[in-house]
Design brief:
It is built from 11 helices and 12 strands. With 333 residues, the protein is of the alpha/beta class.
């Protein structure tokens, strides 16, 4: 079978990097784009555009017809979610509709972009992997629950209907073209701009967005159907991450480390204000619930089976800061 590779979410941060990684490998691209979306991230890419939306199953069915491969990257990624139904419609029902459309169209292989948010944690600084035990009850917030449910649905379709899907679980991607920005990107931009006088120390895995994109391509080429692969980089405490931001900007900043409990009232007030204004709060209760967990992960399986490699976190942070500065999100040096 021949045909284009459909990439969903290609106007976004991770999706645009995935589209570029596939283009570099010679794939003919078909990109799912929403009506009225900003196409800046796909400028210069030789690609066919298919208008559609995860909440419109008919548009997904049209987009996938004739495609050889599908990379499903699109997702509603927010931590504060005042209306959970909308997120679940995109992340769970939309994913299911696209997977069924891929089955009906006879797609050769699907790469589904899940998240480390669906995985278990060790509760210590020992990195978790694809086999660390996890339950749905351990998911914090609507985003993580929606991705957990979507991933389980994809695995069920692999087992029950032969969906030819490989799953990748990116950690916290950082780098250029973070247009929204993502929660991690906004944190880095705030730290670089001197807008982060205090922090809650936690642990997270930082990975360059281009390494995540390369991991998608490797999963398509070498991944085993029905398997999950963590696409991570460096495990860092928040203090270490902020020190890297300071190193990149050349601006050492004094920041206060705060316990989670001190910020709980702040989050309540911020959420109340956001409900009135429609803006996203800088800190929400789910941010604080997540901060209580050490989110360290190992990419050993992807390294061994896919040949995946990740560059240092400092490079990811440097590229993100440079892009934010070049695009007016940070003041000039």
């Amino acid at each position: 079978m021949t045909g284009p590779t459909l990439v969903t979410g290609a106007t976004g941060f991770v999706g645009s990097a995935v589209a570029r990684a596939f283009a570099a490998r010679g794939h003919a691209l078909r990109l799912l784009v929403r009506r009225g979306s900003d196409h800046g991230n796909i400028e210069g890419l030789d690609a066919e555009l298919a208008e559609g939306d995860l909440t419109d199953p008919e548009s997904l069915a049209r987009a996938v017809v004739g495609c050889r491969f599908v990379a499903h990257v699109a997702a509603d990624y927010r931590i504060w979610v005042p209306k959970p139904a909308a997120m679940r419609a995109a992340n769970v029902a939309g994913t299911q509709a696209l997977m069924r459309a891929a089955l009906a169209a006879g797609v050769e292989r699907v790469v589904y972009c899940s998240s480390v948010a669906t995985l278990g944690l060790t509760g210590t600084t020992t990195p978790a992997d694809e086999h660390t035990k996890v339950t749905r009850a351990a998911m914090v917030g609507t985003y993580k629950t929606s991705k957990f449910d979507a991933e389980r649905m994809v695995l069920d379709l692999v087992a029950s209907e032969g969906l030819p899907a490989v799953i990748v679980n990116p950690a916290a991607p950082v780098g250029p073209r973070d247009i929204k920005p993502t929660p991690t990107g906004r944190m880095i931009a705030d730290a670089a701009a001197g807008r982060m006088p205090a922090y809650v120390d936690t642990g997270l895995n930082i990975v360059h967005v281009d390494d995540v994109a390369e991991g998608h391509a490797l999963a398509l080429e070498r991944g085993t159907i029905g398997e999950r692969y963590i696409l991570g980089g460096e495990n860092l405490t928040m203090a270490q991450l902020l020190a890297l931001v300071d190193d990149v900007t050349g601006r050492r900043q004094r920041r206060m480390r705060l316990p989670v409990g001190v910020l709980w009232p702040v989050a309540l007030v911020a959420e109340a204000v956001s409900r009135l204004t429609g803006s996203e709060p800088r800190v929400a209760r789910d941010h604080l619930r997540m901060a209580r967990k050490i989110m360290f992960f190992s990419s050993a399986k992807a390294e061994a089976e896919l040949g995946y490699r990740a560059r240092p976190a400092r490079r990811a942070i440097a590229d993100a800061v440079a892009w934010f500065r070049e695009n007016g999100r940070l003041p000039p040096r």
